[in-house]
Write a structure and sequence with these properties.
With 305 residues, this protein is an all-alpha fold. The protein has 14 helices and no strands.
Length: 305
């Protein structure tokens, strides 16, 4: 039986993290005026890494190459690929669109965990919910491509982001089982994320441009992303995953669309169309249905009674 206080703390950490992450699309969208996607990514995690190093400087040692590879690929998926896809997507589409689309991450997490972790099996309600949520995502794509005449590439990149995040969640579940320090493990993932990011700095138009940090808006949003959404929230999220598991923790991502859509309308003055509202409702409905557990059969009830 799980330790109830620890279980409750895991839920609290996951909820806190999502409340912060739900507004990161807004900060990134604002920063994209003066920064390129890869610049935001690099500055965000470089600052986050330094902060985590100051908090916990002890090295995190692994016992084998297999364990080290967990950190290497967690850095690739959870830092470099996910946020590069998300940041580039925001240059083509609305922050509200990206916020809703990435909320399908729990579906992909459940599918990958089904094959690589001893998690719960996929059920009929899960598959029905997935189809409904996918219909919502397609409607949001219709909203961007046809109603608002946006480049559909943005919504496609946003859809790829939760797939790599699902892989990251499963990898962090395995890392959590290694009983390593949460902050140290997060710092190690950031390190490999920055290492994977290095080639992209040469491929894309990267420059230090320190004069841009003199603007309060740029500095504030970058510090929010690096200190709050990265250094702090990655630690709280990874801790929640280690306590609750990859699938249960990912369910909290369902809250992201509500926060993202509301914040986009209030802060960025993005137009909320009938398609984005209907798509959000479908996505959330599908998410709710997917989490419903089938009633045990009479035989199963008799066995457990």
């Amino acid at each position: 039986m799980r330790d109830q206080p620890g279980f409750a703390a895991g839920h609290a950490l996951a909820l806190f993290t999502i409340l912060i992450w739900g507004t990161t699309f807004i900060s990134t969208k604002i920063l994209l005026v003066d920064f390129t996607p890869v610049e935001i990514l690099f500055f965000r995690f470089a600052i986050g890494y330094i902060v985590l190093l100051l908090i916990y400087s002890r090295p995190v040692r692994t016992k084998s190459l297999k364990e080290e590879l967990l950190f290497i690929f967690a850095g690739l998926c959870g830092v470099t690929l996910y946020f590069l896809l998300e940041n580039v997507a925001l240059t083509y589409t609305l922050a509200s669109n990206v916020g809703v689309i990435v909320s399908v991450a729990p579906f992909f997490t459940a599918v990958i965990a089904h094959f690589f972790l001893e998690e719960e099996k996929l059920t009929a309600p899960f598959m029905i919910g997935f189809v409904i949520a996918l219909a919502g995502i397609l409607l949001i794509g219709f909203n961007g491509s046809f109603l608002l005449k946006l480049n559909p590439l943005g919504d496609l990149l946003a859809l790829l982001a939760p797939i790599v995040w699902a892989v990251y969640s499963v990898l962090m579940r395995k890392i959590g089982a290694l009983q390593v320090h949460t902050i140290g493990a997060t710092r190690k993932v950031f390190f490999y994320g920055l290492a994977w990011m290095a080639p992209a700095l040469f491929l894309f138009d990267f420059r230090l441009g320190l004069d841009r940090f003199g603007q309060i808006s740029n500095l504030g949003n970058l510090l929010f992303l690096s200190l709050g959404a990265s250094a702090m929230c990655y630690v709280t999220w990874n801790r929640a995953v280690s306590v609750l598991g990859a699938v249960k923790t990912s369910v909290y991502i369902y809250i992201v669309p509500v926060i993202a859509v509301a914040a986009s309308a209030l802060i960025l003055d993005e137009k909320i169309t009938w398609a984005i509202v209907a798509g959000t409702i479908l996505t959330l409905t599908g998410s709710f249905i997917s989490e419903r557990k089938p009633k045990p059969s009479l035989k199963e009830r008799s066995i457990t009674s």
